[in-house]
Specification:
Layout lengths: L1 H25 L4 H18 L3 H41 L2 H37 L1
Length: about 130
Amino acid sequence: MKKVILKIFIILMVFCMLSTIILNVSRAESLQDIESTAKGFIEKGKAVGAGTIASTEDKMADIVMPIAQILVTVGTIVVVIVATVIGIKYMVANPEEKAKLKTQLIGLVVATFVIFAAQFIWATIYKLLIDF
């Protein structure tokens, strides 16, 4: 029964893909129509949005940067708390529990690396884009 349903599903998916391709091919425009539409779009954008890209960029930076700073701060606080808890548990644990805590410590180190690497990558990309 499952094989029949799977075959019907595959046939329907192939039919949907083929019908989409056929519909898109039948709607194709000429190259001149596409070019004139693109030029009109660009001209309309130049007329309406003269100088607004820089202001939009500043607005986005004003919105995104505080959120990113809050996330990094929260991540740092969580890492410190978890490291403290793991450290206390490690001090009072027997050898078997210490082995488990070491694996948790590896996860903590990886999480810390991800938090700060993401912040570094974000800051680097942001600086490069601002310079351009």
